[in-house]
Design a protein that fits this description.
Blueprint (H helix, E strand, L loop, with lengths): L1 H11 L13 E2 L2 H6 L4 E16 L3 E7 L7 E6 L12 E10 L7 E12 L16 H4 L10 H23 L3 E2 L5 E2 L31 E2 L4 H7 L5 E9 L12 E10 L4 H22 L1 H11 L3 H10 L3 E4 H9 L17 H10 L5 E7 L17 E9 L3 E8 L4 H10 L7 H8 L5 E7 H9 L20
The structure holds 4-amino-1,4-dioxobutan-2-aminium adenosine-5'-monophosphate and magnesium ion.
The site of 4-amino-1,4-dioxobutan-2-aminium adenosine-5'-monophosphate has 23 residues, from strand 11, strand 15, strand 16 and helix 13.
């Protein structure tokens, strides 16, 4: 085992520089094997799934993939190692020598000495077919198998890299990571889109109600982050959130991941917007650097033209318009909308799409929304009429709303009145307390993680960027 670790370490440090010789018989990931620059017969073991089998007169070619990279490792074997069980989709363990490949398509290949089929796969019954590039929509029927395709493999690796990049962005910027609860007794957004949580068997819990209060799956970690922002000036959370929205749309899920940040001593929306733009651009740069082949697959085969669209977003400064300006733009649009744009009415997807196009397909912040449209916690701008709050949404090409955020109402008396008007005073005493004891101006935002992935990769349907999508009438596996 120690040998394998040393080998891995040696190989990891050699992505561009010539690699020192690995030690014999090490277990190697496909990704690490492919990174070896100068292979000279090192004995290694590779485990994975067969992506192709090609038999020539005396030689057998296999491509083995283990999920560590888009590219598979070419295995070359004497035809006497061929067996009937060696089919597309089966799992294998291959031992042999890593050698320089005569082909220009890869640096190295594995000259097999032993091929063991670990698990059979009958190609007749296996719904995925060799060389197929089935549409993502078709693959959704097979949530238990679709991760074995190149497309889902790439999307899920990007998802994993983006997750790591988000954590590193916040860590590098000095934020403290908070695990906000999944079960909660508050409805942060007040939109009534809650899933209630109850024990499945009453018999095991004699009490009427397990928690003594109605409990729900969280719609947002914001209020818990706000608690923390009374002690830590910069906090973030990144976890699953749940909305019982009756929507089959291509940008809504019942369970999705949200990245949320809360910053104390922030006095302007512009300060928040800077962090939002910084997060989007830095995380995307990290993703492009860490898995360029996976991103390229999406940009080439799933969303042609997306590479240029993304570059356009990254090289321009994001724009800002007010909600009032947005409504004016929509009213003057030549396009007919299903929902007539009007001041005081929420923007619909069709409006968001139009606004982004109108702004030259550059992400655009829309700020200062009508007070009546927004939850109790958003800071009153004390303007008007018309009366607005310091809210901000970021609209992006292809997706529409990607971020939602605001300055929070940190002034005790303003908040007290807003809560009273909504009949929430009793339930939110603890929230008022935050304004009684060392209140500070603060603000924050949430970014839908799946929508972020859709936006950078150009994936049309949100169900294709999450491993196991949950939405109305569908909770498979
Ligand atoms: O705009 P929302 O509802 O904002 C909040 O929940 C705030 N409490 C966040 C905060 O300030 N801390 O949601 C934030 C983002 C949206 O902009 C959208 O990208 C995403 O979450 N989102 C969804 N993504 C997928 N499916 C859904 N049903 C979503 N609802 C919101
Ligand atoms: Mg929103």
């Amino acid at each position: 085992m120690l040998g394998a670790r040393c080998l891995l370490r040696a190989l990891r440090s050699c992505s561009s520089a010539p690699c020192p010789s690995p030690k014999p018989s090490a277990k190697l990931s496909v990704r690490d094997a492919l990174r070896v620059q100068t292979a000279s017969g090192e004995r290694v073991k590779v485990q994975g799934w067969v992506r192709s089998v090609r038999s020539q007169k005396e030689v057998l070619f296999l491509h083995v993939n283990d999920g560590s990279s888009l590219e598979s490792l070419q295995v070359v074997a004497d035809s006497n190692l061929e067996s009937r069980e060696l089919n597309f989709g089966c799992s294998v363990e291959v031992q042999g020598q890593l050698v320089k490949s005569p082909s220009k398509r890869q640096n190295v290949e594995l000259k097999a000495e032993k091929i063991e089929v670990v698990g059979n796969c009958d190609p007749k019954d296996f719904p995925l077919k060799y060389k197929d590039r089935p549409p993502l929509e078709y693959l959704r029927q097979f949530p238990h198998l679709r991760c074995r395709t190149n497309a889902l493999g790439s999307i899920l690796r990007v998802r994993s890299e983006a997750t790591a990049a988000i954590h590193s962005f916040f860590k590098d910027s000095g934020f403290v990571h908070i695990h906000t609860p999944i079960i909660t007794s508050n409805d942060c957004e007040g939109a009534g889109e809650l899933f209630q949580v109850e024990p499945s068997s009453k018999a095991k819990v004699p009490e009427e109600n397990f928690f003594d209060v109605p409990a729900f799956l969280t719609v947002s970690g914001q209020l818990h982050l706000e608690v923390m922002s009374g002690a830590f000036t910069q906090v973030f959370t990144f976890g699953p959130t749940f909305r019982a929205e009756n929507s089959q749309s291509r940008r809504h899920l019942a369970e999705f991941y949200m990245v949320e940040a809360e910053i104390s001593f922030v006095e302007s929306l512009q300060d928040l917007m800077q962090v939002m733009e910084g997060l989007f651009k830095s995380v995307t740069a990290m993703v492009l650097a860490s898995c360029p082949e996976d991103v390229a697959l999406c940009h080439r085969f799933i969303a042609p033209g997306q590479k240029d669209r993304l570059e356009h977003m990254l090289k321009n400064n994001f724009l800002t318009i007010s909600y009032t300006e947005a409504v004016e733009i929509l009213k003057q649009a030549s396009q007919n909308f299903t929902f007539t744009p009007e001041w005081g009415v929420d923007l619909h997807t069709e409006h968001e799409k139009y606004l982004v196009k109108h702004c030259g397909n550059i992400p655009v912040f829309v700020i200062n929304y009508p007070l009546a449209l927004k939850p109790f916690y958003m800071r009153d701008n004390e303007d008007g009429p018309p009366h607005t709050v310091a809210a901000v949404d970021l609209l992006v090409p292809g997706v529409g709303e990607l971020f939602g955020g605001s300055l929070r109402e940190e002034r005790y008396h303003f908040l007290e009145q807003r809560l009273a008007r909504s009949g929430l005073t009793e339930a939110y005493q603890w929230y008022l307390d935050l304004r009684r004891f060392g209140s500070v101006p603060h603000g924050g935002f949430g970014m839908g993680f799946e929508r972020y992935l859709q936006c950078i990769l150009g994936i049309d349907n949100i169900k294709d960027v999450i491993p196991f999508p949950r939405f109305t009438h569908s909770c498979i596996l």
